[in-house]
Specification:
alpha/beta, Rossmann fold, 43% helix
């Protein structure tokens, strides 16, 4: 049975694939027929993910990538292409978070945030587009932004700035690359239950905050599957430069 989210014949790269959204995106791409290359700095966790995908009948490979380093990005692309060919889907997902007030952010922390969340997205997207164009094929790039790229909350100034920049970068790249057959869109998640956030969300304060949002809770990973696949797959062929909030209404509620 075919579906609108069928990824058969696609070759996908997922960055930041050692945990959270990256793991989820990789599994969903693979189970729908894509050949998936997972990338991150923690190779041991990537090997576990590759084994899980292969055990489920999918095709996957792992490459080490530091998205803040152009040389590392190029080497990882070379290795990934040697496995499956030119990437036609890129989940540009690697990122970091740092919750602290603006007066407590030091220069090193600011640089780490921008290098990973913004420069890293640019380096990966640029490399993907260069190779798609050279191969004469189109594709889809999905940048992971955040609802904090659309609005702000207390204690997240550097993170919000980096994700707002990702949203604008997404739109700018979309304008430049649409005629080359490359779609660039951004996914803007709200607060989701992941390995990184599970402990924080367990506190009474977090539960009270989440309860005040329109949906009244955090998101579950399966609830971001369809929005991601819409942007990544041919089902979203007329979507260019979109910044899609997936947040249970958090971006329009109290923050």
């Amino acid at each position: 049975m075919t579906t609108e989210f069928d990824m058969t014949g696609k070759v996908a790269l997922v960055t930041g694939a050692s945990s959270g959204f990256g793991v989820h995106f990789a599994k969903n791409l693979a189970c729908r027929g894509a050949k998936v290359v997972v990338a991150a700095r923690r190779l041991d966790r990537l090997h576990d993910l590759v084994s899980e995908i292969r055990d489920s009948g999918g095709e996957a490979a792992a490459v080490e990538m530091d998205v803040t380093c152009s040389e590392s990005v190029i080497v990882a692309f070379d290795q990934g292409e040697s496995e499956f060919g030119t990437f036609t889907v890129v989940a540009n997902n690697a990122g970091v978070a740092d919750v602290r007030s603006a007066l407590k952010i030091d220069e090193g922390s600011w640089d780490t945030m921008m290098d990973t969340n913004l420069k890293g997205v640019w380096l990966v997207a640029q490399q993907a587009a260069l190779r798609m164009i050279a191969a004469g094929i189109g594709g889809s790039i999905v940048n992971t932004a955040s609802i904090l790229g659309l609005r702000v909350t207390f204690g997240q100034s550097s993170y919000s700035a980096s994700k707002a920049a990702v949203v604008q970068l997404t739109k700018a790249l979309s304008v430049e690359w649409a005629r080359k057959g490359i779609r660039v869109n951004a996914l803007c998640p709200g607060y989701f239950l992941t390995e990184m956030t599970e402990a924080a969300f367990a506190s009474p304060q977090s539960q009270a905050y989440l309860g005040s949002s329109p949906a009244g809770r955090a998101g579950e990973m399966d609830e971001i599957t369809a929005p991601f696949l819409l942007l990544a797959s041919d089902a979203g062929s007329y979507l260019h430069g979109v910044a899609l909030p997936v947040d249970g209404g958090q971006s329009i509620g109290n923050m």
